[in-house]
């Protein structure tokens, strides 16, 4: 059954470049309700596990280094059709291919440093949310 929640991270580049406010504004203007949110930092083990699906890719080491180099904003978002609609709002992985009006078009600087994460399925949204938040931190 489809859920109405997805999980996002404002990645270290988005935080470093001062875009927390701008990105959260696009998220709320896009009709998403913030269910949970925190400033936190991934450990190397966290990032390796999070991106384990990419372990054999040439950019894996660079990705883990990038994702652990500074704080991130982790959040759970709610909206009808949340996973798919949020993927639309963030835009293509490569900002060169991201549509106008998307978060990555506005804030991403490269394929790797692309400002924001969005879960790719309801199943992963639930796993990623539970990794970061206890039940009492979800509202
Ligand atoms: P998405 O985040 O759009 O779901 P993927 O799951 O394919 O994209 O990749 C996860 C993350 O890995 C991307 O958001 C990006 O930060 C990084 N990444 C993907 N492909 C590359 C690449 N070719 N070079 C560098 N980093 C990459």
From TrEMBL:
InterPro entries with a match to the protein in the record: NDK-like_dom (IPR034907), NDK-like_dom_sf (IPR036850), Nucleoside_diP_kinase (IPR001564)
Catalytic activity field: a 2'-deoxyribonucleoside 5'-diphosphate + ATP = a 2'-deoxyribonucleoside 5'-triphosphate + ADP; a ribonucleoside 5'-diphosphate + ATP = a ribonucleoside 5'-triphosphate + ADP
Protein origin, superkingdom: Bacteria
Annotated residues for binding of ATP: 11, 59, 87, 93, 104, 114
EC nos: 2.7.4.6
GO MF assignments: ATP binding; metal ion binding; nucleoside diphosphate kinase activity
Enzyme class, first EC level, given as a word: transferase
Subcellular location: Cytoplasm
Domain (Nucleoside diphosphate kinase-like): residue spans on this chain: 3-137
Quaternary assembly: Homotetramer.
UniProt-recorded name of the protein: Nucleoside diphosphate kinase
Organism encoding this protein: Flavobacterium lacus
Gene for this chain: ndk
């Amino acid at each position: 059954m489809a859920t109405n929640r997805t999980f996002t991270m404002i990645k270290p580049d988005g935080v470093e470049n001062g875009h927390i406010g701008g990105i959260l504004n696009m998220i709320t203007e896009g009709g998403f309700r913030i269910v949970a949110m925190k400033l936190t930092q991934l450990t190397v083990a966290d990032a390796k596990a999070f991106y384990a699906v990419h372990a054999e890719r040439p950019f894996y080491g660079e990705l883990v280094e990038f994702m652990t180099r500074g704080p991130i904003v982790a959040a759970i978002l709610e909206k009808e059709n949340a996973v798919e609609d949020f993927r639309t709002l963030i835009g293509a992985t490569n900002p060169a291919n991201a549509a106008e009006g998307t978060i990555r078009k506005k804030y991403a600087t490269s394929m790797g440093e692309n400002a924001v994460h969005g879960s790719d399925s309801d199943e992963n949204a639930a796993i990623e949310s539970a990794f970061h938040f206890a039940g009492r931190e979800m509202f």
